[in-house]
Amino acid sequence: MNMNNVYTTQSAEETRVLGGELTGEIIPGTLLCLFGDLGAGKTTFTQGFLEGIGAERPFVSPTFVIMKQYDLLKPVSGIERIYHVDAYRVETKDFETIGFSEWCEDKKGIVILEWPERVADLLPAKRTEIHFKSVSENEREIKVTSF
Ligand code: ADP
Ligand code: MG
Question: To which CATH superfamily is domain 32-133 assigned?
């Protein structure tokens, strides 16, 4: 997977595989912002990523806990932790309070953020954006851009 490219997937499985392939390119300290409507594939992609990087199951949705942290038993190219974050139900000021910037400053961590538009004011300039779009029932366009 290239960090500046557009991909098309034809099934949830293909999106999961693509998420797994990202683990070969990503560097520690990266903030990954996942944009896209409900059902566009953000969580499917994230689960492929978590699986690919060897995070411990269960992979739970952070919708109700806001942040789920995975400490890797075996670090992968300097990455020791993944913070999977969902900003859907969060106010910007609360997001600061619970430690969003500290997770982003973790030099051995990766932050995966769903619904980044909810906390747009807090996003550091240096980030990777992935935009998910439903093209048809089973087709998704997935565009990766690194800033
Ligand atoms: P989000 O987290 O963006 O709301 P999810 O990953 O939870 O989206 O859900 C995506 C839904 O779309 C799942 O039900 C999945 O099976 C389905 N789906 C169908 N085709 C694809 C595809 N190409 N990529 C990802 N998901 C797909
Ligand atoms: Mg989701």
Answer: P-loop containing nucleotide triphosphate hydrolases (3.40.50.300)
